[in-house]
Structure formats: structure tokens, C-alpha cells
Amino acid sequence: MVTILFHSTIFGPIHSRRLGSSLGVNLSPNDGKVCSFDCVYCEAGYNSQGAGTTGLPTREKVSQDLEEKLSAMKSLGEPLDVITFSGNGEPTIHPQFAEIIDDTIALRDKYFPQVKISVLSNSTRLGDESVVAALRKVDNNILKLDSAINETMRLIDQPASPTFTCEKVVEQIAQFGGQCVVQTMFLRGEHDGQRIDNTTAQEVEALIKAYKQINPRQVMIYSIDRKTPEQQLEKVSREELEVIASQLRAEGFDVMVS
User: Phi then psi for 228, rounded to 5 degrees?
Assistant: First the structure.
């Protein structure tokens, strides 16, 4: 099974296709994966690998490690565009996510006030008021919506909760409106003998309807860029992504293709 884990709480900076020079914050264990999705395309691998032994990093450790890194980068004059919460699982699962966001904002303002703070979230924790309030504070609140059709969403994202639905999550994402960016992964392939394809006319039509309900600041669309735990997946070409993007732009959306 493909597994690419980040083995530290703070990692990078790395070059992000969508965000630039990005310093990563991993709120999951550094030797395992903890996530409320089990996406067939996740570069960190499937949840079946286990949560590891280190546990979630404490709020204090995140703050200490981040300050050490930001201080060193500032002293060396290293460039930085964004601090990004991603890592080995869903960052909003961390029980002190809101407090960690507050700490991160304070450290950003101290060392790199021009830098943006981004959170890459799978949208599963939007029923928690503290998570919603924290996401409203960041510069780039990037929320996943891989399909607006439940059957397809369950094939691609494999949510842990049996009650998680597209209808519910679209309604929850819509509370942010222009305070969010919606991110959609397009792909084709098979998983457990079932065909996956969220590029069809029906899928794109459903996504457009969902995007209209959400009214996000921007829509990011992309496809597979690294090895995936499911071996029978197909990357959607840049040309095809641009065709989908043109459909979205015709509906008035600001679209980034990467």
C-alpha cells in the first residue's frame, strides 16, 4: 500500500501547486494516519495502516515547533507564502484545533505578518461551532467537495460516518459563502470492483448546482499528482480539467486549475 507520511508536526516549506511556498502543520500523529475520510486517492495511504504510536501533537508542541521554525526562517531571510494545515489526516479532528489556530495567527503576525494561513479540510467537522469559528479566522478556508452525488462521494472519499451526506455538507459549507474556497479532485478508475468517474456531465452538473448554493470565493479543481493507495485510478488531463473549468467560469465562478 502506498503510504507517504509527514514524520514531524511542522514540515517544509514545500512548493504547493495551489498555494506557493508552504510551511506545513501536521496535527495528526507523525507515524500514522487519523482521518474521518479514507479517500481512495490519499497520498498518506488508507486508514487501515493505523494511527501509529505518537498520538496527536499537543497544542504546546505545535506552538513551540512552529515558533522555532518561523524564527529560524526569518533569521535566514527565507521566503514564505503560506502556513498550511494538512498532514497525515484531517486537521479539524484535533480537540484543540481552534486554540491552535489562534496560536498560529499570533505567531504569523509576530514573524511573517504578510503570510496567509490556509486550512485544507475535508468538511466533516462543520457541525462543530468551534471549528467553524476557527475556520472563519484563517485566510484560506479550503473545503473539500469531491462530488455532489452521494454514491460517488462515498466511493471516492469513504467517510467514516454513515450519516455524512452531500446535501448536509453542502448546506454546512454554504454558511461560509465568500469566506471559503471549494476544492474538488477529479478522477476516474475502479475501487472494490466499482467504477469511479466524477467527470461525467451528470457529476459536473450536480457540482455546479452545489457550488451555486455555496457561492465560494473560488473553486479549485485538480487531479491526481502522486501515487495513490488505490492502484486503479486515472489522472484526468489538464486539457479536460480546463474544459470543466470553462463550464464553471461560464456560470460565474472564479476557478483555479492545478
Answer: -125, 155
